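[Q] Does anyone have a clean structure-token version of this?
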Amino acid sequence: MADARTLHPEDQIAHYRVVGPLGSGGMGEVYLAKDQSLERSVALKVLPYELTRSEDRVRRFVQEAKSASSLNHPNIVTIYEIGQEPVKSVSGTEDSGPLHYMSMELITGKTLGAKIHEEKTDLRTLIGYLAQAAEGIAKAHAVGIVHRDLKPGNIMVSDDGFAKVLDFGLAKLTEKTSGPNEATEVADRTVDGAVMGTVSYMSPEQVQGKPVDARSDIFSFGAILYEAATRQRPFAADSNVEIMHKILHEKPQPVEELNEHAPAELRRVIRRCLAKQAEQRAQSMKDIAIELREIVDEYDTLSPSATSATITGSGVAPVSSRRRIPMLPVVIGLALITVVAVLFGVLRGRKSETSQPFQTMRLTTETNRGDVSACAISPDGRFLAYVAGKSGQATLRVRQVATGSDVEVLPMQDTSLEFPCFTPDGNYLFYCRRKPDAPLYRQLMSVPSLGGQEQQRGFDVDSRVAFSPDGKRVAFVRGVPQDKYNALLVLDLATHKEKQLATVPGPSQVTGPASWSPDGKWITLPVVTPPPAGGSVIRMFDAETGATRDIFERKGMFLSDVAWLPDGKDLAVCGFDLGTMVTNQVFLLSYPAGQLRRVTNDFNNYQNVTAGAGDEAIAAVRSSGLMNVYVTDIEKGQERAITATTNPEQSPRAIAATNDRVYFVALRGDYPGLFSQPVAGGDAVQVATPPGYVVRVAAGGETVVFRLVDPHQQSHVWKVEGNSARQVTTGTGEDLLAISPDGGLIAFSLTDSSTGVWVQPTDGGQAKL
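[A] Here you go.
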């Protein structure tokens, strides 16, 4: 029998080389392919030739690309490119006419259907994945896009625990009107009465060929929730006609008859989603996402027979419904089980005369080893240098982006290596290492880019160096804590003479390396101002006189890196907004307008950004973590998880423990809050704190203290008292450093001063320097 696939291994379409098939469906065939221009693997979706005879099929294919590519969300698959090109076979000859193709993010993992039926993943974990998917769908709904083909096969779960919504081939664009759920169809030429979607997951209005809005997706999502809870579809029969009849006229078998352990709260959500009438259904996918996250968080305490309506007035489930776990003899610590991918994200954007850089963004993972601490891209964008190593050891390596070849420039050694960067001609790498006999100081070193003899080029350097365009001078930051300021210096590499160009006096702090503008006129630094007006300033220093001008200033925005793009019209920066995000993202800052534009939008953390001219490439270290809290029985050597987070965004962090309780910081709502959970097992209870960010927690004996940064940028130390907290320090701003083993004293520094450690009793009293 002849191979019915449209493409075969080694076929070429545009700059994509086919590796092999991944799957197929009604909306096209999907192949694993290699993007040869960026040297990365992609999922390549094509519309077979026989389907291009249908204008409607072609329109839907294009609609999928337009719908998905307009959405920038970590729980929606990323579309890289769409096009129409002829196929070249292995022999080099062109096959029949142009083929429609779509290049998208390759997700390594399993479909939600496989997680449900093949891997038999536990229900709590499945609900966590579906909560993520609901967030992505809510994003689509917010911009007027209805998916119309939600099913377990269109939700992928990546190996690192992220759920991604795929296949917007049937997506319909809607336009909001006056009502919260009213919509009008826009630019969708589907014939009236046409039945669109996968039958088993269709909403009643889809079955009847009626206009649909976001509530149709909610019905389909309810069918997926039902399948996750019962391992069966809610509407099943021998023919599509019978399935459609059941969707319109019958209720599915009650969930509790198929899974008596399914929480009543989940069953309630499923019933609300599967209401036959759209107006009686749950009305917001965002609300569903919130409810599912709450179910995951409270899963161990939820009863199969009672919903939140039967919970006591205190808001806590009765003790009789909780799972009892005997106390461990000894708790020796907390083991963070972390799934971390530290990656090089190379963001590429093709730029026309009228477009802005990074309008079309491509993300390439250059390495996924978990011990990378710093990276730099070469000026021509062809090479990446990175530092890797753990436990006081480090190596310096260089990777060729186009080929993936990787060479060791400096072998693994018992020292720290920091701040790698290329010279403007790309021939040398500069970096810093701690001086063995004076570990508080860094030596500035250089080495040929592909390995060779090291050479010391400077001393007492506290940042990555920035090269002048001609490569003859470097600028860097030197901290002078004894005099409470940071100095910006320029070093002549030929004469070894230093010039102090300017200073940044305390309490402001320099939070990143300098960057020299391509025209050689300016040296730029990110500067953070202290509370109560805390925020970031991007400050430019005249490279000859040191005169300053600020091109950006924003309260509540904290930027930590800055790198000029080669055209001199934009700067790449890393940072976060205290009011809207908890991880560093990549931004572009226009020059001279000073307008900030977000490049990345996910739950990962980005740092150490550099820029190169190669197709406008930015390199950054990207990290992601899924963490849970474990306790260990010291006598039996057994460990047990006491949290069960499935979403990296809400992973517990900043952990401390007393004898019987664990305290950790986790994101809930708009702010990271402080939670307390028994070591023996049971519910996590949020400690009542004022609005703000809990950023550090420490325990001594039975005393727990934490640092809280409020929305006005004020930072103080607080003490936990039961399920509430009391403010301990009351100055102009304090940063918690440590607590004594007995819990009687805390040590802190002042946020408006770069020196001095203060000690104060946790129960009150005079602080002493």
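[Q] Thanks! Anything notable?
[A] The chain has a mean pLDDT of 80.
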